[in-house]
Design goal:
CATH topology of the largest domain in chain A: Arc Repressor Mutant, subunit A
Strand order of the largest sheet of chain A: 4-3-5
Strand content of chain A: 15-25%
Structural class of chain A: alpha+beta
Distance between the termini of chain A: 38 Å
CATH architecture of the largest domain in chain A: Orthogonal Bundle
Helix content of chain A: 25-40%
Oligomer: homodimer
CATH class of the largest domain in chain A: Mainly Alpha
Number of helices of chain A: 6
Number of domains of chain A: 2
Chain lengths: 137, 137
DNA sequence: CTACAAAATTGTAATCGTTGTAAAAATGAT
DNA sequence: ATCATTTTTACAACGATTACAATTTTGTAG
């Protein structure tokens, strides 16, 4: 998975540093849509000199090169997703978890591209509500 | 339009105060998806005692009652929309304007509701890119 | 191998949108 | 008219993100 992370960086034209590989690897092995803080806290033990600024910088770099998704649905924190195939996201406002949502018509988003756009760099479909887990209580 | 704003508040079970009417009216007459600051700056002259906290409180109240939409696509600012019919939004990263985007299949979002959701309170479809206006330069 | 320029990382300070809080003002009911 | 409730207000505090300049690492040419 270390190797997969490195290859993904190279594939998207990003030079693979220790920090970048670790962050990419974290996103590939944790499909939990982590926040900057979660990633930083998880990696700090194995990379003691890691700076939170580096996590910010790296995630934005990965996002701008199309290697990861940026999820802006949670007003409190930006989440990130290492898997870039077409899918939607669901935010539970109780536990603030972000879930993946498969969509039946993956061409829908492309079909409805805004006419006033000269260029589209990203598109996102979000749902907000309460998950079954939290709904029980 | 003053009257339309008042009626909309009542329709959604919100008591119509001077401040609430003014904010609702602003959203109905300015289809620019304004931010908290834009609304506050615009209304402060006519309501000199207006507090920014009130604008925050009121917008969240309106949103929670379903009278307006909350647009979270812009990392820098939350935008609001007084028109709640099904449509998408497009953020230009150059001028940070938010445009309305009509969608061909308004049932799409409902059809793909996440299975792990006990309750859905909101759904949003976003596009990010550069608008024609900014693309010229 | 060495030196130098470019790129990446780091720590700290600063920014700024948003929220918390408690007091003041306005409103509605008795 | 009085009192409880709701709403508004001002200000402080918070916290995610960014700015910045210094330090470290990396790649390349000699």
């Amino acid at each position: 998975m270390q190797q997969a992370a490195r290859e993904r960086l190279v594939k998207f034209g990003i030079r693979p540093s220790v920090q970048r590989i670790a962050i990419m690897k974290y996103l590939l092995t944790h499909r939990t849509h982590p926040t900057v803080d979660e990633i930083y806290t998880a990696l700090a033990p194995e990379i003691p000199t890691l700076s939170k600024t580096t996590v910010y910088n790296t995630l934005h770099l990965l996002y701008e090169h199309g290697a990861i998704l940026l999820i802006s649905i949670d007003p409190a924190n930006t989440h990130f997703d290492g898997y870039t195939h077409p899918h939607a996201h669901f935010l539970c406002t109780k536990c603030t978890k972000v879930y993946d949502v498969e969509i039946d018509d993956t061409a829908f988003v492309d079909r409805n591209k805004p006419s006033m756009a000269a260029e589209i760099t990203d598109s996102e479909l979000y749902y907000v509500g309460v998950c079954r887990e939290c709904g029980k209580q």
